[in-house]
Amino acid sequence: MDLIVFLVFAVIAVVAAINVVVQRHPISSAVSLIGVMGSLAVLYLLLGAEFIAAAQVIVYAGAVMVLFVFVIMLLNAGTETRTGRSFIASLLGVPVLAALLAMLAYFTARIYPRGTEVRFGGFRGGTAEAVGRALFTTYLLPFEITSILILIAIVGAIVLARKELE
Amino acid sequence: MDSFIVISLIKIFVVFGALMTILAYLQWVERKVIAHIQVRPGPYRVGPHGLLQPLADVIKLITKEDLVPPYVNKVLYLAAPFLAITMALLSISVIPFGPAIQVGGYQTWMQLTDLNIGVLFILAVSSMGVYGIALAGWSSNNKYALLGGLRSSAQMISYELPLSLAIAAPLLVSNTLSLRKLVDTQDGWLWNWNLFHGWQYVSFIIFLIAAFAETNRVPFDLPEAENELVAGFHTEYSSMKFASFFMAEYANMITVSCMATLLFLGGWVAPWPAAYGSGYVPVAIFAAAGVIMLFHGLHPARRRDRLTFLPFGLILLLAAAVFLVPLTQSALLPLFWFCAKTGAILFLFIWIRGTLPRFRYDQLMQFAWKFLFPVAMLNLLVTGLVVAVFS
Amino acid sequence: MMGQVPLSWFLMLSAVLFSLGVAGFIFRRNIITMFMSIELILNAVNLTFITFAYERQQVAGHLLAFFVMVVAAAEAAVGLAIILTIFKNRGTLNIDELNSMKN
Fold first, then answer.
1. Helix (H) or strand (E) holding B30
2. pLDDT by position in tens, chain C (length 103)
3. Residues of B at the A interface, defined by Cβ within 8 angstroms
4. Domains of chain C
5. Phi first, then psi: what are they for C94, rounded to 5°?
6. In this structure, how many other beta carbons lie within 10 angstroms of the beta carbon of residue B357?
7. What's the CA gap between C65 and B121, in Å, rounded?
8. What is A1-78's CATH number?
9. Between A and C, how many CB-CB pairs are < 8 A?
10. ipTM of this model?
11. Residue ranges per domain, chain A?
């Protein structure tokens, strides 16, 4: 049962990720990226990370991607045109990517040949209480620093995107 | 494992059927209430008192020509209403309508599924509901639809912040994220409700205002106003796809009303415990309604009222009798209180629609960012301080 | 026991998503699509963190994924504001044409 869930959502994630990279119009890439994030949220649930799954949907798929979709709709830049095609790049591109992928997969399989099996419910420490407790005790300093980081980002975005004062 | 799947399937069918019927008749209630506020009769021709009007509307929408204009982005155009209605219906699946009940030897909760992170699930699903509207506006390839879609989605994400902060305050008081345990902490008398016991008056008001904006209802319905933007984001949609957007809006309304009931008004808990006779309130209400209907049926104002009022009066008296049967009391009484409270908030939605004018778009956005969001943060801060100091 | 997923499959899925993100970043010329490929890379890394949190039965991996999410959100906000300004000034989103600081 867990195997079927993993296979279905892993296939959806990979197909959507390929769609992100391949599509001509940015809005189709954005919608496919939302699909990737949704299926990753399901995989997080399988790994027992219930709070992070909810945060992924609320923050990443529900706010960051809305920002992307808004910018694409406002800019209305249309589909992408090809400029400066390099012959060597189109020849070596896909093989090099496949080589990178094969290397990563080989080293992964070598470290974990028949490692732990993941079972839904195998890790019960991902509740909101556990994450909150760690966030406010062990990781308090990074928490405060990221809140200042978000404040800086807000101020920066507002300054960059407002109308120029004549 | 087997019985769990069978029970869940039965619950899904029951809840889905009930929800679809309630969606259709919520539109009838809205039209009737707004009509009476405006001193006119409302739909009254199709069936007695217009009760078959939703059926007529459904038949009209199904048999209307389903037009897909050639200049739209086909994939997104077809996906947008599907996304909107899916997200709207998905959030009903974690709402508890009552406590555990015994049905023929199996014990089950009156809830499709209980999640540890139930409240976060509803927030997540409502965040995804923004895409249905934004993509509908974009894919229609029409400047009015695009403007309406962008305005509506900007409004929804702006009001998501005060909504989340207003939800976080009673969660601090109740100390749980699960919707079922939220109601369990409000058990008892009227003053145990989060609204009174936890002093969440400000949170309740902020939640209601943000809920009006989230569901695109008056006074925040500029993005879909008919006299402003042709028809907003659903200009290019016809028949069933248009109906999907409407169903999604009403389903969202039902969801936020249920959330208000669970978070602030004590869910399915009666205002005073059953030991002191709160079990007789629904009996009294239905019996009084039945007696009044029988009286008007026997002394009719119009001749055909004799035919319609008498059977309905008898049906209402029968409903009052059902509430006296001890076998079904444990399931029906909590359901009655939950529906009564949710119905009161839905009536508030409809009442405000008939009363208030709508905000201009920049007034709406200023109100969200300059007033409501700071007030919600302050409210959360004060609630956190009080909870930390007094416990 | 049927129905359990080997841990290395999660890591390989993360590797596949990471490589696709790198491919998108290198091969595409539209700034917004390159930005979305970066988000894909960050998501793949999040999956790795959560997988190792499962293996070690600790919640620290979840915290790291949470901080990655927060930083990605801040980065998306500022980056998209920069892209808006660039489009207002240069009129193009093609990165081959945005190759000088001079106007």
1. helix B2-37
2. 467 888 888 988 998 899 899 988 988 888 999 999 999 999 999 999 999 999 888 999 999 999 999 999 999 999 999 998 888 888 888 887 777 776 6
3. 75-76, 79, 115-117, 120-121, 123-125, 127-128, 130-131, 134-135, 138, 146, 150, 153-154, 157, 177
4. 29-103 (1.10.287.3510)
5. -90, 125
6. 7
7. 19
8. 1.20.120.1200
9. 247
10. 0.91
11. 1-78, 127-166
